[in-house]
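Sample entry was shown:

___
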Amino acid sequence: MAKPNTTFELSVEDLEMIEDALRDHTLRLAESARDGSSCRRRSVHDLLGRLHNQKVFYRPRGGGYVGG
């Protein structure tokens, strides 16, 4: 049995494109409002959350940090 690939080489632009496609898909699911689409929307929303949580955001080392 083949092993799944656990390492990926995706650029920031690749991830942005994936996130945009998932958001568009969620909107289409919401507009169609078919039975069971809320479960599917929840799965896509959870996936977007996992992608977001894997990001490393820049924070300067020196000086004060002012968050926005």
Residues 12-32 form the longest helix (21 residues). Helices lie at 12-32, 37-53. The two ends are 49 Å apart (CA to CA).
